[in-house]
Amino acid sequence: MSQPVASQALAPPPPRHVAIIMDGNGRWAKARGLPRNLGHRQGVDAVREVVKNCRKLGIEYLTLYAFSSENWKRPESEVSGLMDLLRLYIRRELAELRRNGVRIRVIGDRTRLAPDIVSLIEDAEAQTRDNRTLTLVIALSYGGQDEIVAACRQIAEQVSVGKLAPEQITAETVAGNLQTVGIPDPDLVIRTSGEQRLSNFLLWQSAYSELVFVDKLWPDFNASDLAEAVGEFQRRERRYGASGE
Ligand code: IPE
Ligand code: IPE
Ligand code: MG
Questions:
Q1: CATH no. for 17-143+183-235
Q2: What is the pTM of this model?
Q3: 239 partner at 20 to 30 Å CA-CA among 81, 86, 90, 134?
């Protein structure tokens, strides 16, 4: 008996939103006897390559975990090295990102960032606001728990002024008060370096994300690794709690 044609012909759709925990820069540098900051610098090349290749794969949203709320605990020299790289990345790449139709959005706690970085980010967001080819979300000074706490506070505020009744609070209310409002949840979360944890990344939004763990360290991650992770995603069956039958 042959299969119905339709079920054979339909290729699984690519992920609309891919989110990446870019991990392993320090180990990449250590393996070469280099300072950790050189690993971070090398990681920027991998960022460029991944951003460039998203649209070819049909990806509309790419979120990159660049710096977590916990990464502030690192030595001052490493933190300032990472912030310098961010400045450099935005300054050097903004024109090209604009040309390529990339919209930039930054999520995370801006109150902890240097004022010049806040200005750079605001400027990049404003200049790319109307771009639609790819939305690049940079998670910077970002923590999923902090984000949910902030949403709770905003909702509590609305309740306390009588704009909202507690029984009106739904999952949509919470999602609508997160910094990712308007961005679809990530379909695929990739983490490099072999670690298998979320480290406070998109906790609410990843409720039904497919997780793919890649052994390669972030500076070694390239276009074909991205394509492979997308292929792995397309072989998965997403059930959202249903029976799959
Ligand atoms: C990821 O690489 C980059 C950031 C967290 C900013 P790491 O710096 O965590 O590298 P490892 O995990 O120490 O190898
Ligand atoms: C997560 O990596 C944060 C980023 C990639 C920006 P970490 O290296 O900070 O995570 P842990 O400490 O191993 O969980
Ligand atoms: Mg790490």
A1: 3.40.1180.10
A2: 0.95
A3: 134
